[in-house]
Automatic annotation (TrEMBL):
<dbReference type="Pfam" id="PF02445">
    <property type="entry name" value="NadA"/>
</dbReference>
<comment type="function">
    <text>Catalyzes the condensation of iminoaspartate with dihydroxyacetone phosphate to form quinolinate.</text>
</comment>
<dbReference type="GO" id="GO:0008987">
    <property type="term" value="F:quinolinate synthetase A activity"/>
</dbReference>
<keyword id="KW-0479">Metal-binding</keyword>
<keyword id="KW-0662">Pyridine nucleotide biosynthesis</keyword>
<keyword id="KW-0411">Iron-sulfur</keyword>
<dbReference type="GO" id="GO:0046872">
    <property type="term" value="F:metal ion binding"/>
</dbReference>
<dbReference type="GO" id="GO:0051539">
    <property type="term" value="F:4 iron, 4 sulfur cluster binding"/>
</dbReference>
<feature type="binding site">
    <location>
        <begin position="180"/>
        <end position="182"/>
    </location>
    <ligand>
        <name>iminosuccinate</name>
    </ligand>
</feature>
<comment type="pathway">
    <text>Cofactor biosynthesis; NAD(+) biosynthesis; quinolinate from iminoaspartate: step 1/1.</text>
</comment>
<feature type="binding site">
    <location>
        <begin position="293"/>
        <end position="295"/>
    </location>
    <ligand>
        <name>iminosuccinate</name>
    </ligand>
</feature>
<keyword id="KW-0963">Cytoplasm</keyword>
<dbReference type="InterPro" id="IPR023515">
    <property type="entry name" value="Quinolinate_synth_A_type3"/>
</dbReference>
<dbReference type="GO" id="GO:0034628">
    <property type="term" value="P:'de novo' NAD+ biosynthetic process from L-aspartate"/>
</dbReference>
<keyword id="KW-0808">Transferase</keyword>
<keyword id="KW-0004">4Fe-4S</keyword>
<feature type="binding site">
    <location>
        <position position="103"/>
    </location>
    <ligand>
        <name>iminosuccinate</name>
    </ligand>
</feature>
Length: 409
């Protein structure tokens, strides 16, 4: 099974979502857009972190030379440094990870290893922030490429949320703020100090049940689709779900009838999946099982056979049988890896166009080699630190999530 990078290299013009995907991330301007991939057209924040240029030792190195650098540095650093790799990372990076998982499980892995001096988080910025919040004060969390942000997280800034909160609470009783893990630390902190909570795609229903025990309404940040899909699983109709556009707001009447106020944010990877893709998969493969992530739009989730987190998707694939056909609606690197892991099944991405997460794809073995060799030299590059006061409030929201339990059936 070829890697996603190889698929991009071999793709015809209409088989990948941009010719620049074949270029190395340092060869592109990383300060004006999220880069090639699913998020290239998303609004880019002017205050996005800047990644300094890599030395030529890394940018000119062959894959074999980078592999040797990384292996030697890992051996030297030993147990002092752990590499955390998100499911959506490219294969060339995941192969070096000590732990592979979703954002929250990787942050928990950092918390579970107090003996480590540092964690190299091969993911995106909000993930490294969460790991910093949950790890020890004397442990460093490092993001190999500071330009690896997240367009969904950037769709809800603290200034926007605070303005929205003022407008909403002027019209109705304060809702319970719930933020998806895919949000900035200061948004988690906002929820913590306003009686709110954090959720993951695995426990969103449990968290919303908790929220409705605290109040009549929920403000769900920043992913409208996860918020809407979770509300649907709880039997909340569309008439009681309203979309908050930070540029327009809502009328008091619209707020009054709402039980769930979803923020106008989305994941550009999962927004690409459509009902038409599911229909095409069913026509081509009768009996196919369609599994999608709940960040997909509601019609896609409703047309699928199952919807759930990356961990659920992995479990569904593991529980399938040789000869089964599975069409999956999530990021291509994970789908491609599952297809390679289970060659006796037909596993493919619903989206026929190869279009990885723009910012996950910015983590490259060259950045990892540079990070690890810097640590060997006694330097700590690209350290992600969350302000103590922000971390304390965010930790409150995270601890509420950990304490929430599903309703007894």
């Amino acid at each position: 099974m070829p890697s996603v990078r190889e698929l991009i290299r071999l793709a015809a013009k209409d088989e990948a979502c941009g010719t620049d995907l074949a270029q190395d991330p340092w060869a592109l301007n990383q300060d004006s857009s999220y880069g090639p991939g699913a998020s290239i057209a998303d609004p880019f924040p002017v205050d996005a972190p800047h990644q300094s240029a890599l030395p030529e030792r890394y940018t000119q190195a062959s894959p074999e030379e980078l592999d040797a650098m990384i292996a030697a540095a890992k051996e030297t650093l030993g147990e002092r440094v752990k590499i955390l790799g998100h499911f959506y990372q490219r294969d060339e990076v995941v192969t070096y990870a000590d732990f592979v998982g979703d954002s929250f499980n990787l942050a928990k892995a950092a918390k579970a290893h107090p003996e480590a001096d540092a964690f190299v988080f091969c993911g995106v910025h909000f993930m490294a922030e969460t790991a910093d919040i949950l790890s020890g004060a004397d442990q460093a969390v490092i993001l190999p490429n500071l330009a690896a942000g997240c367009s969904m997280a950037d769709m809800a800034t603290l200034a926007q949320v605070e303005r929205a909160w003022a407008d909403i609470t002027a019209a109705i009783e304060a809702p319970v703020p719930v933020t998806y893990m895919n949000s900035a630390a200061n948004i988690k902190a906002f929820c913590g100090r306003n009686g709110g909570i954090v959720c993951t795609s695995s426990n969103a229903t449990t968290v919303l049940e908790w929220a409705f025990e605290q109040g009549q309404r929920v403000l769900f940040l920043p992913d409208q689709h996860l918020g809407r899909n979770t509300a649907h699983t709880m039997g909340i109709p569309d008439e009681e779900i309203v979309l908050w556009n930070p540029r327009k707001g809502l009328t008091p009447e619209e707020l009054e009838r709402a039980r769930v106020i979803v923020w106008d944010g989305f994941c550009s990877v999962h927004k690409r999946f459509t009902v038409a893709q599911i229909e095409r998969a069913r026509a081509e493969f009768p009996g196919v099982r369609v599994i999608v992530h709940p960040e997909c739009p509601a019609p896609v989730v409703q047309a699928a056979d199952a919807a759930g987190s990356t961990e659920l998707i992995r479990r569904e694939v593991a529980a399938s049988q040789p000869g089964d056909v599975l069409a999956i609606g999530t990021e291509i690197n994970l789908v491609n890896r599952l297809a390679a892991q289970y060659p006796d099944r037909t596993i493919f991405c619903l989206d026929p166009v190869v279009c990885p997460c723009s910012t996950m794809y910015r983590i490259h073995p060259a950045y990892l080699a540079w990070t690890l060799e810097s640590l060997v030299a006694g330097e700590i590059p690209n350290r992600i630190t969350v302000d103590d006061a922000v971390a304390a409030d965010a930790r409150v929201a995270l601890e509420r999530m950990l304490a929430a339990r599903p309703k007894a059936v």
